[in-house]
Amino acid sequence: MNVVVPPSGQGPNPSSPSGRRSLYPENEPFEAGWIDTGSAHEVYFETCGARDGKPCVILHGGPGGAINPTMRRFFDPSRWRMTLFDQRGCGQSRPNALLDGNTTWDLIADIERLRERAGVDKWTVFGGSWGSTLALAYAVTHPERVSGLILRGVFLVTRRELAWFYQDGASMLFPDAWERFLAPIPEDERADLLGAYYRRLTDPDIKVQRPAAVAWSRWEGDTISIRGPEARPAKFNEQDFATAFARIECHYFKHGGFFEHDGWLLDQVDRVRHIPTWIVQGRFDVVTPLETAWKLKAAWPETHFEVIWDAGHASTEPGTINALVRATDGAFAV
Question: Are residues 154 and 208 in the same domain?
Fold first, then answer.
């Protein structure tokens, strides 16, 4: 199904004057802790919602981001049992910003550890941006464990996507923010900005890492929402968050997401074609442009696909909230 949602939105919601769906009320975890990964990493997790509800796992972005209370609010807590976790090296997972033993395949193994711990056979996987990448990679690796996918801001970690955001493309739309992104990098290194940042973010001297990390993180924060920099999450201004976020994100991107070849995820669609999938994409998403989601939809026409006309990349754009809450409420009745 292919849907383009105009700014007026759709779907009844008595609490929303616009008629759009809104987030569910805040809810607190009934369980939280760390899981042992058999490596240097300990992964922080939370479980919330209904103890006997429909199981789902919620994947945050980045890589190198972290879970936050808003992520729980896309699901009806009376119907869903939600598992959230901070991926290796970030959020409350320990140790912070560690790159060793930190690959896509390690994260997939962590998701399986959490599923087994939850005692569920299958679950719905919900993820946006890098979370959509990880959701797809998990589904490709363990299709028998996925009852459904809800994806936002589709990102496949291709060279084209990385060049758009970190070399030449988005820079033309945000020249002011781009100037700040370029500032830590000498002109003679700017032909390969990803490589230049990687060298600084993996430098053993924290005084070299920190300025690069702040500039890297601010670039994403400045472009994440059509509502402007004032919509930048406060975490993008925090040095500790910025260091983990930038180091881990650059580590994954420098290694092409640890996939076998460029475009690998798109080539695996036949392995997941049978899984009910709902895709939500902001029309004005600069971080993960519509082209990628469109290519995924073209290869996988069975998906329910929505383009939100008045949305950028952030999950908290009103039109995106509306679509994602309808997805979780509908439970794939599309």
Answer: no
Catalytic status, residue 313: yes
Known catalytic residue: 261? no
Whether 192 is catalytic is no
Look up the CATH number of the domain holding residue 290.
3.40.50.1820
pLDDT tens per residue across span 78-131 = 999 999 999 999 999 999 999 999 999 999 999 999 999 999 999 999 999 999
Among 235, 257, 279, residue at a domain's last position: 257
- Alpha helices (H) in 125-158, listed in sequence order: 130-141
Give the side-chain half-sphere CA count within 13 A for 211: 11
pTM: 0.94
Catalytic: which of 93, 129, 225, 315?
A: 129
Range of the domain at 112: 2-158+258-330
